[in-house]
Amino acid sequence: MPELPEVETVCRGLAPHLEGRRLVRVEQRRPNLRTPFPPRFCERLTGRVVTSLRRRAKYILMHLDDGGVLIAHLGMSGRMIIAPERPDAFDKHDHVVFETDAGTIVTFNDARRFGLMDLTVADALGDHPMLRNLGPEPLGNEFSGPDLARRLAGKITPIKAALLDQSIVAGLGNIYVSEALYRSGILPTRTAASLTAGEVDRLAGAVREVLERAIAAGGSSLRDYRQASGELGYFQHQFAVYDREGEGCPDCDCDRARTGGVQRIVQSGRSTFFCAARQR
């Protein structure tokens, strides 16, 4: 599933083509994605000017000139594809088509249909069911070691599970949590409440660093993810531990024959990768 860096990359890729442009035509090519489209979906979007594109957690927020906001989630395989003109034919997985007054075509393609789109108004955005319980943005000013320590206090869940809780930190996913725990030297199985203030400070810094590096690299192109431009991201080539079971740890002198190198365990049904020699 596209994680925060992928969604941020998509937003940045879409912005030059959509911000300040009028949506002259919007097509909904099926009745639903993961959930049904809102009533009068195309009618409410057609003719509106896109004032800004923002990201909240893993959601794309398209702000409109009438105060409306389109909320979009890419799901498992959703992609936003930009084309300079209307194609002769659309793919069977092209479910929503936006056409701007510049003639640009932005198509939402989602083979597995786990994505979703909804409409709300800016004044009620914070109360939307998908957004109202989200924690702070890990790249925002609110996110810090002390704030994270306060949110983790008393939690007996494993630190990895705690970081995946969207009410603690918004937008973190399986890939980048594994990477951040590795960078901060913290074992993913430790209880959240067991971390010291110094460890939480290191962890908060590692979260920010890993996400910023991934965004700079264009996101990670695992399976179906693509940038809005259609190009593959390449942060997966910089993974220290994720999906590297049995390989040597890139940043320490662990004895692979003794420790097995990067190890994989399953936590809450998801793969976790770590180095037992580096992470404590």
From TrEMBL:
One record GO biological process: base-excision repair
Thylakoid in keyword set: no
Sorted alphabetically, the keyword list is:
DNA damage, DNA repair, DNA-binding, Glycosidase, Hydrolase, Lyase, Metal-binding, Multifunctional enzyme, Zinc, Zinc-finger
Kindly list the positions annotated as binding DNA. H93, R112, K155
Domain Formamidopyrimidine-DNA glycosylase catalytic per the UniProt entry, residue ranges: 2-115
Q: How is the cofactor bound?
A: Binds 1 zinc ion per subunit.
- Where's the FPG-type domain? 240-280
Residue positions of the active site = P2 (schiff-base intermediate with dna), E3 (proton donor), K58 (proton donor), R270 (proton donor)
Cofactors that this protein relies on: Zn(2+)
Q: Which InterPro entries match?
A: FPG_cat, FPG_Glyclase, FPG_N, H2TH_FPG, Ribosomal_uS13-like_H2TH, Znf_DNA_glyclase/AP_lyase
| UniProt EC number | 3.2.2.23, 4.2.99.18
SUPFAM superfamilies, sorted:
Glucocorticoid receptor-like (DNA-binding domain), N-terminal domain of MutM-like DNA repair proteins, S13-like H2TH domain
Example GO molecular function: class I DNA-(apurinic or apyrimidinic site) endonuclease activity
> Which reaction(s) are listed as its catalytic activity?
Hydrolysis of DNA containing ring-opened 7-methylguanine residues, releasing 2,6-diamino-4-hydroxy-5-(N-methyl)formamidopyrimidine; 2'-deoxyribonucleotide-(2'-deoxyribose 5'-phosphate)-2'-deoxyribonucleotide-DNA = a 3'-end 2'-deoxyribonucleotide-(2,3-dehydro-2,3-deoxyribose 5'-phosphate)-DNA + a 5'-end 5'-phospho-2'-deoxyribonucleoside-DNA + H(+)
The entry describes its oligomerization and partners as:
Monomer.
Q: What does this protein do?
A: Involved in base excision repair of DNA damaged by oxidation or by mutagenic agents. Acts as DNA glycosylase that recognizes and removes damaged bases. Has a preference for oxidized purines, such as 7,8-dihydro-8-oxoguanine (8-oxoG). Has AP (apurinic/apyrimidinic) lyase activity and introduces nicks in the DNA strand. Cleaves the DNA backbone by beta-delta elimination to generate a single-strand break at the site of the removed base with both 3'- and 5'-phosphates.
Per the similarity annotation, which family is this?
Answer: Belongs to the FPG family.
Protein name (Swiss-Prot/TrEMBL): Formamidopyrimidine-DNA glycosylase
- Which organism encodes this protein? Azospirillum palustre
Upper classification of the organism? Bacteria, Pseudomonadati, Pseudomonadota, Alphaproteobacteria, Rhodospirillales
Q: Which gene encodes it?
A: mutM
